[in-house]
Structure formats: structure tokens, C-alpha cells
Amino acid sequence: MPVQITGAHATVSMLSRLLLDRPLRYGPNSYGYQVAAVEAKGANAVALEFGSVYAPRSEAYLSSMLLERLGLLPSPTLQAELANYLAAVGKANLGVVALQLGQILSGLEGATGDLAIYAAAAVRWNDKVAAAHAYSTNPANVGFVTFDSFPTGTGATFELTSDADTLKGTPYEDVFLAMTPGQLGSADAINGNGSSPNGDTLKATLAAGEKVTPTLRGISSVFVTASAGAQFGAEKSPEIRGLRLDAAPGGSVTFTGVPSQAWVGIQNSLAGTALTVHFKAPADRMEPFQLSLADATGADEIIVPDVIALRIASMPGSVAATTVNNARITAAAAEEIVLSGNQALTTTITGAHVEVINARTMQAALDLTFATTGATPIGILGGTAADRITVNDASGGRAAIDAGGGGDTFTIGAHNAHSITLGSGADVLIITCLAGPGAWALGLADTAALRRSAIEVTDFVSGTEQLRLAAATPTAKAAPSGAQLASIAASASLLDAAALASNTAGANKAIAFGYGGDT
Known about the structure:
Blueprint: H1 7-20, H2 31-41, H3 43-51, H4 59-70, H5 76-89, H6 94-106, H7 119-136, E1 157-159, E2 166-168, E3 175-178, E4 189-191, E5 200-206, E6 211-212, E7 215-217, E8 219-226, E9 231-233, E10 242-246, E11 251-258, E12 263-267, E13 273-279, E14 289-294, E15 300-303, E16 309-315, E17 325-330, E18 336-341, E19 345-351, E20 356-358, E21 366-372, E22 378-381, E23 388-392, E24 399-402, E25 409-413, E26 419-421, E27 428-432, H8 447-453, E28 456-458, E29 466-469, E30 476-477, H9 482-489, H10 494-505, E31 509-510
Parallel strand pairs: 1-3, 2-4, 3-5, 4-7, 5-8, 6-9, 8-10, 9-11, 10-12, 11-13, 12-14, 13-15, 14-16, 15-17, 16-18, 17-19, 18-20, 19-21, 20-22, 21-23, 22-24, 23-25, 24-26, 25-27, 26-28, 27-29, 30-31
């Protein structure tokens, strides 16, 4: 959205997003105090205080952190330039630099020309700032974190009946069982009564078409085995921290009213299950919602229709460690998706508004297919293992990709001016659709048009990495002579070299040439 928050409120909201990665709580002891401090001491003084805790961090780390929170990754050029700038001005000025970057990006909505690539990120950044301000000025978000002492002892196991049950547990870690369809119902009220560190657990089985909304208090973990058409409602269970579809036999299952802080996901899947998750709206609407997969091997699908930011963890379950989690993620409203975990993951992510897929902390192999359904620019960061990432860019959305570590394989269509950084490892880059309808046209009108239209590949190591060019129909390769290649290489500019190479190759031909040390 356009800029809506200005002055001291914008300063504090930006600093909290950039240097705390969360909005401040309401009240004079937090948000109000910082706003007053900005008005009394000035924005730069408060910004320096916000940034002072990062003094031990390297310039490279801080550059990556700020750009990630601004939604500007991947961008190796910006990362390097910002790291150098921080080294020049000193890390003590991190807070001021962060505030300046936030203010600059905030003004780039509707940018044109070379700055147009930042317009979408600017919209999202202004949305984050507005959401932070809305959270921090809402009296419902006042309070401080408190820590209780935990009692020690052995919990009990309770079994529900087919009647309306009212159960109260012990102060310890209890387990409530409703393993037969019909035992868990909307009339049931369970009070875990626990103050144990892990909370109490409910395990339930729902028959096909069964819909329940029980009242749960003190229940942290819920495991539901459900058949097609079943629905579990968490509207009356605000303390749930983990909600899992467990060993489901397949079909479509729905979770509704899920608390925003809950980890939700699929584990031990037996067959393809479509799990639709409806979360409660959080106080901070940019708050990330969390999905998890563990031994989800049934080619499942998790549908999250109303979430802007998603965190998806791929974790091992009870099966052998070689298991690969396999699930499709359909997120119609999502803009930012973070993938993590130490279990291999095969997934297709579909969404019209996704701007960032960040798998930088993913420790296991990722096989990702991104099926964009809109024209939104997309940034993708690979993990540390050998990833396989395929981007369906038929909609024309520009992709900026940073492969990360490992020997990765990337496949992307030539429908836009993509930017690919291969990183470490022996990588393979496959560019498809180089001919035929929808193929991207190289702009030769002027230098700016060439720069905006070129598909740029960096960190390519000749002899180690592979670049494969593919067309919808066979494309003949030009065979320029040594003299022609020398003439192209001697051009006064890259624009002149590209134009000469185009004329040398002729229509519907591929040509490879060198200029300025690049191919």
C-alpha cells in the first residue's frame, strides 16, 4: 500500500521491523517510549540505539539481514555494495543506515525506469510498516512475557466417550484420547489444567464428513487422524501450539479457526491428502504462519488461502532418515515463504503474489517447483544442499535467483529478464523456451533496454558448471568465424557487441560470443 505512516511513528515502525524483526508492543513502556524518544532526541539518535546490539556481527551478515527484511534478496550486487558501505561508515551507524534504507524503499512505489524493479518490494515494505504501526498502537497488544515455574510429576491418560465429556487433567503432562470416531465432539470440554513445559496432548480420530469444534484449554498439541470431508475447528481452543494431521488415509480435510501461533502440518501421511488450513487473523497481519511436514510422503497438499507470510519446516519423523517429505503448497495470498529444516523436501508452490521464497537455512536437499500464476517479480534463495529448482515463469514474472551452496540444478523459462547467481558447487542451469511464442526478446534499442532485457548469469565457472539452452522447437546454432568473433569482441560497448552478434547469427539462430571477459 502507499505510504500511510509518517514522522516518529514511521521511524519506530521501520526500526522495529528492520532491527528487531517484529513490531513493538503497545504502551508507554515500549512503542510509546520509543516514539517519544524520537520526538525528543531525533530519529538518528534512536536509530543508533536500535542498531548498537549488532556490533559483533560482520558487515556481510548485516547487509544480508537488512536486505532480507526489506524484501530485496536475492541481489548479490546490493549485498556486496551495502556490506562495503557499512565497512566505510562503520557498524556503529547500522541503525541510521537501516532507517535510511527503509525510507528510500518506502518512496519507490510506482518507480519507473531502472528503479522499477524495486516497486513491488516497496509496496510490500510499506505494507509491513503500516501493519507494525497498527499492531503497536492497538491496546490489545500490551503486556510482557512472564515465566512460570513448572511442577514435576507424572501425568495421566484420559479417554473420551461418545457422550458430552467434561474433563479436567492433572498439573502435569496429560494425554487425552478420542481414537474412535464419535468420541470427540463439539460438546466436549477439556481442561488440561497443566502448567508443564510441554503442555497436554489430545489425539483424536474423525470419520469421513465428521465436523467437530471442541472446547480445549491447556492443550498444546493436537493430533488428528481424519478421513475425507472431516473438519476440526480450533475456534474454542486458543492455546493450541501444534496441530497435526496424522496418518490420514487421504481425501480432503479442513482445519478452521487455528491460532496464529500454532505449528500446523501433516505427518505420517498414508495417501494424498488435501489439508485446507484457515488461521485466525493475527494482531500483526504480517506475522508469519507456520507449517510443518514430517514423514509426509503421500504427495499431499496444504492449502492456506488467506496467509501473507508462511514458514514451512521439513522435519524427519519416525521413519528412516532417508524419507523425503512430499507436499504441494497452495497459497493464494502469500507474498513471502521461508523453507527450513533438515529433511529433504519435494514441493510445488503455487501462488499469484509470491515475492520471496527463501530456503537459505534449508539443510537438506530441496526439489522445488514454483508455479507462478501472476506477474509478480519473484526472488528465490537456495539452501546449503544440492537443490533442484524449477520456475514456471509462463506468466512473465521476473525471477532473481541465488543458488546458494551445493551442486544445484535450476530450470527456468526465457520469458523475462531473469538474474541467476550460481554460488558455490558444480551447478547446472537450464534455460528453456528460447524460441517460439512468449520467448523473451533482447532489447537492442539502447544500453538501458539491453540491461533490462538480458538474462544475466553470474558466478559461472567454466569447466565446472553447465549452462544448457533449450528451445520449444530445435534452434540452429550459428557458427561464426574467428574473424567474426574477434570483431564482436572488439566492439566499443556490450550493446554494439550484442547487435553485431545478432546480425552475424541471423534470424532464429543461437550464437555464443565473448565480450569484456564474459560469454
